[in-house]
Amino acid sequence: MKTAVITGGNKGLGLYQSRRFLDAGYQVHVVARSRADFDSLGENAHFVECDVAADRTADWLTDIHEAAGGVDVLVNNAGVHLKKPVWDVAPDELDRVLDINVRAMFAACGRFVTLNKDRGGAIVNVASMGGIMALPSAAAYVTAKTAVVGLTRSVAVDAAQFGIRCNAVSPGFIDTDMTRAVLAKDPARREKIEGRIPTHRFGRPEDVADAIHYLASDQAAYVNGVNLPVDGGYAIGF
Question: Could you list the active site residues?
């Protein structure tokens, strides 16, 4: 049985990612600060309580590697958004966005490669449309997600010699509980957004989970260093 580690894999899009890997027969280790909806995942899911942003060396990944006898897939999903233009972002707010979205991912990638030099494996980093195009009033978030894309490419080039692939997925507008709650207050905004998406609909959480699973699987054995938009064509149709 292969083992996958998913940060933030107990809620939001991460929960769907965990379910997708479990359905594919993986043992899944969910790394998060709280259990949230973790208990719905079943017996092949294991919870690891950890604030990934606070562990600058990703020792948590070493602990999982030793307990599981190895890790085949790392999905760096944990992230945070900040809706502010650059002039309103305080230094501590920027630090938080970078700590969670970039520094934690950077450390996890480095630790995964160190542990898997003789094993190979796959890393999938969750980026965003903000790593492809500028989003309004999201300077810190766009900066962080752009860094995620660059990190992915760098790891892909450096780690290929060890049989390790690294790719990214950039979700667009996805129909989650959070999205529906926000847009329920402004139905006209949802209609406007859907009108700008070439497929004229929001994506499903499963669409993102399927893309991540594909990039982690042997079906993508020759796919390395890509940033795959899962956005219905929004970024290219804008």
Answer: 141
**In the chain, alpha helices (H):** 12-23, 59-68, 91-98, 104-115, 139-159, 177-183, 187-196, 205-216, 234-237
In the chain, the domains with their CATH numbers are: 3-174+204-237 (3.40.50.720)
Q: Which two tokens stand for residue 174?
A: 């996805």
Q: Which sign does the torsion angle of CA 7, 8, 14, 17 carry? A: positive
Residue pLDDT tens, the chain, 238 long: 999 999 999 999 999 999 999 999 999 999 999 998 898 998 899 999 999 999 889 999 999 999 999 999 999 999 999 999 999 999 999 999 999 999 999 999 999 999 999 999 999 999 999 999 998 999 999 999 999 999 999 999 999 999 999 999 999 999 988 788 777 778 888 889 899 999 999 999 999 999 999 999 999 999 999 999 999 999 987 5
List the one residue out of 9, 49, 13 whose CA is nearest residue 28. Answer: 9
Q: Hey, what amino acid is at 32?
A: A
Give the Cα separation of 140 and 144 in Å (integer): 6
CA distances from 139 to 43, 64, 90, 113, 142 (A): 40, 34, 11, 30, 5
DSSP 99: I
Task: Count Cα atoms within 13 angstroms, Cβ side, for 201.
Answer: 5
**Distance linking the first and last C-alpha atoms of the chain:** 42
What pTM does this model have? 0.96
